[in-house]
Structures are given as C-alpha cells and as structure tokens.
C-alpha cells in the first residue's frame, strides 16, 4: 500500500512507476535517532498497514516503531540466521569461509536479526564468489522467498511465542 524509505533511493522510483505512494523519512532531517524513530512510526501509521515489510531497509527500528507494529514486521536478511546478523551479512559469510549461506525471512523484534524465523533457503558459496556475485544469487532466492512468506502471512496470519513462529497451514 506504500513504500517508505530512510533515504533517497531507487525504491522510491520503482514505487512511483508501480503507482504506489512513497516517501522518505531521513535521519538527517531529525534532531536525533529517537525523533526519527517517532517520525517514521507516525508516517507508516498514517497508512494503517496490517503488515510492515523491511526489504533492504538498513536502519535498526527503534522502540516507538516496534511498539506500534510489534509482531507485524517481516524482514528479509541475506544469511542463514542466527549466522551473520547485521548490516554486512554477505561479506561476513565470505570472510568466514562458509560453504553454505542463504536467505532468511523473519519477524522483527527488539533485537537485531533475532526475531522468530519464518522461512530460510540455502545458497551455496562458489569458490570464485565475490560479495556482489554471492549477494546477487542470494537476492534471487530472497525475492521469491519474501513474496511467498508475505502472501502466506497475509492469507493465513502468523502465530509466534516470541522465539518460534508458525504460519498456519492451508
Ligand atoms: N529492531 C530491528 N530493526 C531492524 C531489524 C531487526 O532485526 N530489528 N532488521 C533490519 C534489517 N537488517 C538486517 O536484516 C539490518 C539493517 C541494518 C543494520 C545496521 O546495523 N544499521 C545501522 C546503520 C547501517 C548503515 O546505515 O549502513 C544502524 O541502524 O545504525 C542491522 C541490521 C531492519 N531493522
Ligand atoms: N541486514 C539487512 C540486509 O542486509 N538486507 C539486504 O539488503 C539487500 C538489499 O538489496 P536491494 O538493494 O537490491 O534491494 C537485500 O539482500 C536484503 O536482504
């Protein structure tokens, strides 16, 4: 129903091309992180979403946002959590030398990439992989996985005890 970003980026143009309203809430336009968190919460709340999806959203959501949308925020992360959380997952996986990494779709909680996992799919690391090449192969998987999970949650909801989450079967 809307695209909200934390910076000027291609996502705003993609949204416009798709006829979807979009706006940016930039940290630099606010006195501090807490004020940005409140402003972001108010902007997103005005769209009254049932579900918030963070896709390439490279900011840690704060207490105001989490309080308003707790249990209704889905994130996509380019690693097999709990391995390699944070903003540099693909580089970290390569540096570690894992043979397998992948994509994780999870509910967002007050931690960073610690929320209940909804879906995961592995991606093999190739001997000549660099960060860009591996990340692009992960993105191919995550674009499909995220759409599948969001569709399932939209249709059937999600049940979570805070550590584990289940999307009820058909
Ligand atoms: N409260 C939460 N907020 C967000 C989560 C989460 O799990 N809990 N997931 C992120 C997405 N993400 C990983 O999937 C992620 C994005 C960014 C960072 C991070 O360290 N950001 C820094 C700034 C980094 C930068 O600007 O390059 C920051 O916010 O200060 C960690 C994890 C979405 N939000
Ligand atoms: N920790 C959060 C994180 O790393 N998110 C990742 O940023 C990429 C954005 O790709 P894009 O710019 O092509 O949409 C995606 O791979 C997403 O999983």
Write structural notes for this entry.
- It holds the Pfam family Formyl_trans_N.
- This is Phosphoribosylglycinamide formyltransferase.
- The protein has helices at residues 10-17, 33-45, 63-69, 89-96, 131-156, and strands spanning 3-5, 22-24, 52-54, 73-77, 100-107, 117-124, 159-160, 165-166.
- The protein is α/β, with parallel strands linked by helices.
- It folds into 2 domains: 1-48, no CATH class; 51-166, Formyl transferase, N-terminal domain (Rossmann fold, 3-Layer(aba) Sandwich), CATH 3.40.50.170.
- The strands form 3 sheets. It has a 4-stranded mixed beta sheet with strand order 3-4-5-6.
- Helix 1 (10-17) links the parallel strand 1 (3-5) and strand 2 (22-24).
- Bound molecules: ligand LMY7XDAE and glycinamide ribonucleotide (GAR).
- The ligand Nc1nc2c(c(=O)[nH]1)N[C@@H](CN(C=O)c1ccc(C(=O)N[C@@H](CCC(=O)O)C(=O)O)cc1)CN2 is lined by residues 54, 57-61, 66, 75, 77, 86-87, 108, 110, 112-113, 115.
């Amino acid at each position: 129903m809307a695209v909200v970003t934390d910076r000027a980026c291609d996502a705003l143009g993609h949204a416009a091309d798709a006829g979807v309203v979009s706006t940016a809430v930039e940290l630099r336009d606010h006195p501090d992180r807490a004020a940005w968190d409140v402003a972001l919460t108010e902007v997103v709340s005005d769209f009254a979403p049932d579900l918030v999806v963070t896709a390439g959203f490279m900011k840690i959501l704060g207490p105001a946002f989490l309080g308003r949308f707790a249990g209704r925020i889905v994130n996509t992360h380019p690693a097999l959590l709990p391995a390699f959380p944070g903003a540099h997952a693909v580089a970290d996986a390569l540096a570690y030398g894992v043979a397998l990494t992948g994509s994780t779709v999870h509910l967002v909680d007050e931690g960073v990439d610690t929320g209940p996992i909804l879906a995961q799919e592995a991606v093999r690391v190739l001997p000549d992989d660099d960060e860009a090449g591996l990340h692009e192969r992960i993105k191919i998987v995550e674009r499909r996985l995220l759409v599948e999970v969001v569709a399932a949650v939209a249709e059937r909801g999600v049940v979570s005890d805070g550590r584990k989450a289940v999307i009820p079967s058909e």
